[in-house]
Amino acid sequence: MSQALMEPFSSQLNLETGVIAQAQIIRRTLSDMRTMFADRAAAERILAEEGDRLIYEVYAVPLPEEEGQILHSTTIIYPGRVGDEFHMTKGHFHEKRARAEIYVGLAGEGYLVLQSEEGEVRGVPMQRGTIAYVPPLWAHRTVNTGATPFAFLAAWPGDSGHDYGTIEQTGFARLLVNRDGQPTFVDNPHWRR
Ligand SMILES: [Fe+2]
Fold it and tell me: Is residue 18, in this structure, part of any structural domain at all?
């Protein structure tokens, strides 16, 4: 059986901002993530007093989510904190756990945070030019620990799938918070396996 030929194409990435022209844009606001920050009272206070807040945007190049494709997108995490905890992405395992991912830092500074199924946590600092590798089996999220937007390019196999539910239920075992101006990992009081 022969596969239909897909036309080659390119996308235009703004290396300074991380914006990909004519991409599909997904926006995540605080109201989408109100239970994901450890200080839920702080999240509710922000929503009540300031209204909703843009946490991050994803610019995805539209491609079929199937084996053989290499999906790619950029993410821009806006600076800020909810309580002491820095703005971050929701984080996920790949549905097919044995699928890796590559991140390339474009702007700002932050961390790639990874967690194994057993709850081991690792943090990889990222800045412009960093190539960070998510090996198979690790859940991953990114965190903006700087004062400017943190942007990076990501690429992953087309049949990876996304499992957001596990992280939504358990959270990450460790959180990245501001301690005296320094990004610091602390235990998540809400974490359960
Ligand atoms: Fe991923």
Answer: no
Residue 188 reports pLDDT greater than 60:
yes
65 alpha carbon – ligand 1 mean position (Å):
13
Residue 171 lies in a domain: yes
Q: How far is the CA of 121 from the centre of ligand 1 (A)?
A: 16
CA 150, 155, 157, 158 torsion: positive or negative? positive
User: 45 is in which domain, residue-wise?
Assistant: 24-187
Contact by Cβ (8 Å): 119, 171 = no
pLDDT digits (tens, 9 = 90+) for 102-129: 999 999 999 999 999 999 999 999 999 9
Predicted TM-score (pTM) of this structure? 0.96
- For ligand 1, the distance from its centroid to the CA atom of residue 180, given in whole angstroms, is 31
Residue 193: predicted pLDDT: 77
Report CA(140)–ligand 1 centroid distance (Å).
6
Quick check: is 45 in a domain?
yes
How many A from CA of 1 to the centre of ligand 1? 30
Q: How far apart are CA 40 and CA 189, in angstroms?
A: 12
- Token representation of residue 191: 């974490």
Count structural domains, the chain.
1
